[in-house]
Each structure stands twice: as C-alpha cells, then as structure tokens.
Amino acid sequence: MKLATWNVNSIRQRENHVVRWLERVQPDILFLQEIKCEAPQFPASRFEALGYKADVVGQKAYNGVAALSRVPVEVVHTALPGVPADDAQARYIEIRTGGTTCIGIYLPNGNSGADAGYAYKLAWMEALRQRAATLLDADEPLAILGDFNVCPTDEDLSPGALPPTDALVCPATRAAYRALLWIGLTDALRALHPRGKLWTFWDYQAAAWPRDIGLRIDHALLSPTLAERLTSALPDRKERGEEQPSDHVPVVVEID
Questions:
Q1: Domain of 178?
Q2: Where are the beta strands (DSSP E) in the chain?
Q3: Domain with 238 in it: what CATH number?
Q4: What is the pLDDT of residues 42-76, one digit of tens each?
Q5: What is the rounded CA–CA span in Å between residue 127 and residue 11?
C-alpha cells in the first residue's frame, strides 16, 4: 500500500500539479490539505478520469481536506471526534480500507488568533491523540497523514528558520506531538531516516527554496502493525521545483 499526503495550497491552482503527480507516483491513497474550496468546486472529475475517487471535506476559501483513493474506501468521519460540533473548520477526514483506518489532517497552525488560536491548536492535538488512542486500543491498523504544523525537534527545521516562540516549535506543541508517539505511533520518516534534512515545506519568501531553508511539518504516523511493514518514507522534493508550486511537497509512505 502506498499512502501520501500533500498540502497543495489551493487545489484549483494546483489541479494540474496533482494530476501529473498522480500519473507519475500512483499512490493508492493521497490526502490533500488546504484545498481552499467547497466540495462542489473541487475538480473531482479530473481525478476520477485517472481512477481516483474523491472524498472532500471543503470550506470556502480556507482549510479543506480531501482523500483521493484508487482502492475501495469507506468514509468514517468528516470531523475530528471530540472537537465541538459547531466547529466549522474543515481539517479532518477518516476513511477505512481493507481493515485499515487512514486519517488525513490539516492541524491548526496556532500562530493566529493570539492565545485563543494557540489553545485551539493544543485542544485539537489532544482530541487527535484521544481518537488515535481509541483506535489503537481497538487494535486497529492506523495511519495518520497530513500537515501537522509541528517541527518535532530542532533537527526538523533549518537553523533560524523560526523563532522559538513560533507555535510550530513551542515546547507545548512538541510535547503534544510526542504524546502521539507515546501512545504507540511511529513517525515514518524518522523511523527510516533518523537524522538529517527531510524538509517538506519551504516558504515563498526570502528565497527559502533555492537556499534550502525548510521545515519538516508534514508527517505520517503509523500504528505498530503498519510500522513493522514500513519499507519507504520520503518527501518528494521534485515538486517544489515545479513552476508555481505549493510551498509544501508530497510525503510518500510505502507499506509492504
């Protein structure tokens, strides 16, 4: 099984990028983030022509996630259990395929909205931990992929790329990420590449891409039953060098 995640930073601007990438890489499931449109505006027919069914959790102009799958899937949740029902932010999709639960997330950034915005990020991470713990307690094979907006350690960002007060690197943020690992999830990229640069994001400003000033904020977390079958996990840096790219690149995980 080949799983992937990609923050496309507007699907209507990157529709052709995603089509080309699907043709080249052919994942079984691709989770998208920041599609920035409601479901009726999502170009599902382009992906259906390639054999991919689109399940979309959209939001006008902001956020939004989707799952493109060429294997049979069942949509289980379109909002994170434990988050208030009146939360209109489209950040979560949970699907099942062949007895495996796969979750796509766009975790809150936490840098906007002052203290309330950061509190929302931490509350969202705790709700995600509780959902993951519930699935792990049920012995569910589980994969969580997406834009986590977390640099787990200092090795996951270029020196000086972010101030220590940034919500992506704050101690409480990193502690919440570690809490996901402590319940039994494995960071797929670091499992196979414990050290070194694995950037998944380069800002559009300050020539970050040509200077290779990046962050690792897009992750794939696997339950033990999937982690022991992990064969490959890498960011696809090639996409950042394309014309008018997203500021994120896909992360691809292969499970035997």
A1: 2-255
A2: 2-7, 29-33, 53-57, 65-69, 74-77, 92-97, 100-106, 142-147, 186-187, 201-202, 214-215, 218-222, 230-235, 251-255
A3: 3.60.10.10
A4: 999 999 999 999 999 999 999 999 999 999 999 99
A5: 27
